[in-house]
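Example S7 (structure tokens).
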């Protein structure tokens, strides 16, 4: 995958569903030392343990909900992230089907409200759009000179932005952004390694999201808070995550 999917040979494996209170194991294959994090932040260190080699995480919690395991590794001197989302308990919701769309713009407009289950969607879609725009600007300024660097910078920017937006934003956006990565690959085709074409695609995504209109009922936080980090809610220092976005 171009964005949001780890390109290294390592894979983070583990169950998609766990029983509340039961022990589950998540591990990196092939084994490699990693830094671990769990989203949401309310999942305290009491719910998980890391093995001595730091390549495996053990999880158990009576609290039902969606959890995301994040493992940060280093591949060829570059940080990579492996991410796996699972459900602890019973999933009462059904994943909406993804209808075919002739263009990336059409896909975003139909699938964004279907795949992102967030009470602050109106705010977060603006923040995500700005994250894509930031990468476009860095490419234009030649601060980013490769597709690989653009991928890494987008991971960092999206993670930091969503982690500050709300405690659940990273998990809420994971299904959409993972599938968006696949849609970008399909649209780019054999131009996937062309930085200029990637820049155009990122700009297209940003423009669609910037113009996307949601019902006012979805707005739980004033949009003007985007320009003022102090208005993004209390306790944001506890939500800052390492760069992520992976499968």
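Recovered sequence:
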């Amino acid at each position: 995958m171009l964005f949001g999917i780890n390109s290294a040979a390592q894979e983070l494996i583990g169950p998609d569903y766990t029983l509340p209170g039961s022990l589950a194991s998540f591990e990196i294959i092939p084994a490699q030392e990693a830094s671990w994090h769990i989203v949401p932040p309310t999942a305290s260190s009491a719910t998980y343990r890391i093995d001595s080699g730091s390549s495996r995480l053990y999880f158990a919690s009576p609290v039902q909900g969606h959890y995301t395991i994040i493992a940060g590794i280093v591949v060829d001197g570059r940080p990579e992230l492996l991410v796996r989302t699972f459900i602890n308990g019973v999933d009462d919701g059904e994943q909406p089907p993804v209808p075919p769309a002739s263009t990336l713009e059409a896909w975003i407009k139909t699938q964004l409200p279907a795949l992102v289950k967030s009470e602050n969607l109106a705010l977060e879609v603006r923040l995500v759009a700005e994250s894509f725009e930031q990468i476009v600007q860095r490419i234009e300024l030649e601060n980013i000179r490769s597709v690989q660097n653009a991928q890494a910078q987008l991971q960092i920017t999206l993670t930091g932005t969503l982690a500050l937006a709300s405690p659940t934003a990273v998990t809420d956006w994971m299904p959409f952004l993972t599938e968006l990565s696949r849609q970008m690959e399909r649209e780019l085709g054999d131009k996937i390694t062309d930085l200029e074409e990637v820049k155009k695609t990122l700009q297209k995504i940003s423009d669609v999201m910037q113009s996307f209109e949601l019902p006012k009922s979805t707005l739980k936080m004033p949009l003007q808070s985007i320009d003022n980090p102090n208005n993004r809610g209390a306790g944001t220092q506890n939500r800052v995550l390492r760069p992520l976005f992976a499968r």
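Notes on this example. DSSP finds five helices and eight strands in the chain.
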